[in-house]
Amino acid sequence: MFEIFNTKVENVSETFDLNTPAGRHEYFHQKAAKEIEELKEYLEHNSFVSFWLAKKGAGKGTYSKMFSEIIGEERLAHISVGDVVRHVHASVEDEQAKKALYTYLDENYRGTLSLDEAFDALINRETKTLLPTEFILTLVKREIEQLDGQGIMMDGFPRGMDQISYSLYFREIMNLRHDPDFFVLIDVPDSVLDARVKARVVCPKCQLSRSIKFLLTKDIIYDPETDTYHLICDNPACEGCGEERLVAKEGDDLGIEGIRDRLEADDELIKYALRLRGIPKLTLRNTVPVDQAQSYVDEYEITPEFVFDHNANNEVEISTKPWVVKDSDGSDAYSLMAAPVVLSFIKQMHAQLIGDDTMGV
Ligand SMILES: [Zn+2]
């Protein structure tokens, strides 16, 4: 498990609302103004390559998006291999785009498949068959060539153990060898992923997605017959707005059982990456042990969980308490909000790219 990151900052004792963009803005400004400014300045003239590894559902997208909001989207390029493949998949429909892609692949792709075979593999893509790595690298290379020197956040590469070596020499392959590169490894215990899936509810009419524990709608009702609480859809565009109960999606009651193989493969990849030498690793940890929380984090940085009660008229009363989970080692831990995890990323990235001894340069 990764080291616990201390997100407390001397002389910053205010409480920030980490659920709103304005609250987060103030939070980052108070806790990491210097690092953010220096990173922005650094990225005016430099870039980097980062490989993000996390278990499915661990919040890779949330973290990287929040980071982009702080640093400035124009300085960063988020390359999701899944999206790249989907775009290519879509562009095959368009004759001109298809032709441009064919020309590019013809000049750049190296591998055993013919272009037609590679396209077949792409078009008949099942989620379980992976495209040949050489083909993916060529598609990613094309994506990178269209960039204008932004810092690169790779999502979905390396996907498996066989792609790790490519990531180690990715800079050379992509002609980016002057850019610093590093891994970003995210650790979220299975108990957190499991609870998030189990708490998920959607509106059957409009598919509005919320969480009975972490993200509510405006109205919550108590059903005395079943002694259960229900979120009511509050999407104004929904015909069931104000009436329809949000329900669990089929299979969600099983939590992460259905994706256990995938989680284990992801975990194996992260553990392997942790052992790699010669390439820096930034480690993001979602939890803090309950008995150490006070020395490492501020109270509002801990994820709250909603709890419900009802009065004699069956009116719902909502309160919150810190969400306690089982850490990977089985001990009690708090799950952190996204913002403090991103804060730890900013500080580690700053130390990595700029260091502490260049102050005032
Ligand atoms: Zn709805």
TrEMBL record:
Highest taxon listed in the record's lineage: Bacteria
InterPro entries assigned to the protein according to its UniProt record, in alphabetical order: Adenylat/UMP-CMP_kin (IPR000850), Adenylat_kinase_CS (IPR033690), P-loop_NTPase (IPR027417)
GO MF term set: ATP binding; nucleobase-containing compound kinase activity
Any Gene Ontology biological process: nucleotide biosynthetic process
Keywords: Kinase, Nucleotide biosynthesis, Nucleotide-binding, Transferase
Record bears the keyword Nucleotide-binding: yes
Pfam families: ADK (PF00406)
Protein name per Swiss-Prot or TrEMBL: Nucleoside monophosphate kinase
